[in-house]
Amino acid sequence: SQTIHQWPATLVQPVGSPLSLECTVEGTSNPNLYWYRQAAGRGLQLLFYSVGIGQISSEVPQNLSASRPQDRQFILSSKKLLLSDSGFYLCAWSVSGRNTIYFGEGSWLTVV
Amino acid sequence: RKEVEQDPGPFNVPEGATVAFNCTYSNSASQSFFWYRQDCRKEPKLLMSVYSSGNEDGRFTAQLNRASQYISLLIRDSKLSDSATYLCVVSHGGGADGLTFGKGTHLIIQP
Question: From the CA of A16, how many Å to the nearest CA of chain B?
Answer without folding.
Answer: 25
